[in-house]
UniProtKB/TrEMBL annotation:
Domain Methylmalonyl-CoA mutase alpha/beta chain catalytic: 128-252
GO molecular function, one term: cobalamin binding
Domain of life of the native organism: Bacteria
Keywords from the named record: Isomerase
Name the UniProt record assigns to this protein: Putative methylmalonyl-CoA mutase small subunit
Its EC number(s): 5.4.99.2
PANTHER family linked to this entry: METHYLMALONYL-COA MUTASE, LARGE SUBUNIT, METHYLMALONYL-COA MUTASE, MITOCHONDRIAL-RELATED
Native source species: Capnocytophaga canis
Length: 436
């Protein structure tokens, strides 16, 4: 065969087809995925329609902190601050005194505060404390995410959007959009991107109509799974669409990406399966262009984690930070895959907006139905893969090791609309094994 650089893709394919001796090229060498985008055996510039580069950004670690009382929270933050971590995502329990917490938090860190049960009283305390404490704080409340997750608004759509507008005006305009539920419920990559952007448009259109701002920072929280090539391409396609869609608004928008490993493929295995899965997801997040990485703790049946255990997981994630998204700029493979995802996601996005936008397709049930169909396809393929590989469940964690229930809990609360339900792929197989 000629030197590869002097051989066109067409010539290369003809030579390969000859060497396949009659075997079908597409069935033999093209990897069919459930994502409507297939993976080719080789990519060249002939596969590309557009180059999209990610600047030489550095991914930073984001430390998640559950806030039930002030002293343990401050202790945890100080522990990680000593190890040179400075970004903290605080999930606020409704009973904690927000003023006491903010007045006690160590300075010189960056804090992202999420409080789904925020009230007017809490908003007023937030405003006052942020002004007085001079902390670097972004308020990250996604009322639409809560609505889709619970099947009902916290109070009402009007009241929740009013509350959003009040928190939005604290110090600097920040919009937080949590898209992780789509992936964890089994949505395809194209659905994740399209629903995630439409989700954001519900807020940004409201902002444009009701608020007077000059600039806005959007923080997308995204979950990534195990397929290295596709997840990197997904994040890059998400970047590409977000930058093009939000460039048309009359105020300047900066898009930031917070990425975490998905729960969907985590298992109860006591082997190193979860660690390897999470490590691959961390690599995908970084090469996909994540601004912040949420490290995932690998044991899903433990409730309370010691700092040292969590620190080990975080340091494992930190080991991957030497990589940067820019090293795969101009890669024909990733450029081709991300272009195809972006193109197909835009078509779905246009259809969603044509039918009234994200809230409308959620209210009429079409969002849940379309994701459920994709989740079923993924589950069937996953089950077949487990069977074909003769997976042994002997290392599954038994009930005596559980500190928290690891399976989906059914909520019988009556809701105004069907919620979107996250579910792990291993669940029914693990239940079947445990029942023996």
């Amino acid at each position: 065969m000629n030197n590869f650089h002097e051989t066109s893709f067409k010539q290369w394919k003809q030579q390969v087809q000859f060497e396949l001796e009659g075997a079908d090229y597409n069935k033999t060498l093209v990897f069919k995925t459930l994502q409507e985008v297939d993976i080719l055996p080789i990519y060249t510039s002939e596969n590309n329609h557009l180059y999209y580069d990610i600047n030489d950004k550095k991914t930073e670690i984001m430390i998640p902190v559950e806030c039930f009382s002030v002293i343990p929270v401050v202790k945890k933050i100080n522990f990680f601050k000593k190890h040179h971590f400075s970004n903290f995502f605080l999930s606020i329990h409704p009973h904690i005194d927000i003023a006491d917490l903010l007045n006690t938090l160590p300075k010189e860190n960056r804090y992202f505060i999420n409080n789904k049960h925020i009230t007017d009283e809490v908003i007023n305390k937030l405003k006052k404390c942020i002004e007085e404490c001079k902390l670097d704080i972004a308020v990250c409340n996604d009322y639409i995410h809560r609505y889709i997750e619970k099947g009902m608004w916290f109070r009402s759509q009007y009241d929740d959007f009013e509350c959003f507008a009040k928190t939005f005006n604290i110090k600097k305009p920040v919009l937080f959009v949590d898209t992780t539920l789509y992936q964890n419920a089994g949505a395809s990559i194209i659905q994740q991107i399209a629903y995630g952007i439409s989700h954001t448009l519900e807020y940004s259109k409201h902002i444009e109509k009701t608020l007077n701002i000059n600039r806005l920072t959007i923080y997308f929280k995204i979950a990534v799974g195990s397929h290295f090539l596709l997840e990197i391409a997904k994040l890059r396609a998400f970047h590409q669409i977000a930058m093009s869609i939000f460039d048309v608004f009359p105020f300047k928008i900066e898009c930031m990406f917070m990425v975490e490993p998905s729960d969907r493929e985590l298992s109860l295995s006591t082997s190193n399966y979860n660690e390897q899965y999470i490590k691959m997801a961390h690599e995908s997040a970084i090469l996909g262009g994540a601004d912040f990485l949420f490290p995932k703790y690998p044991i899903i049946y433990h409730k309370k984690k010691e700092y040292q255990q969590e620190f080990k997981s975080i340091m494992t994630a930190s080991d991957s930070l030497g990589n940067k998204a820019s090293i795969i700029n101009k890669s024909d493979c990733f450029q081709s895959l991300s272009y195809q995802f972006a193109k197909k996601s835009l078509l779905l996005l246009q259809n969603i907006e044509k039918n009234g936008g994200l809230l409308e397709v959620f209210k009429n049930g079409s969002l849940q139905k379309s994701i459920r169909e994709k989740a079923l396809e993924e589950q069937e393929q996953f089950d077949a893969l487990v069977i074909s590989n003769n997976i042994d469940f002997k290392d599954i964690a038994q009930k005596e090791l559980w500190e928290t229930y690891p399976f989906l809990k059914r909520n019988n609360t009556k809701t105004s609309v069907e919620p979107l339900i996250p579910k792990r792929l291993w669940e029914h197989l693990e239940k079947k094994h445990l029942s023996k």
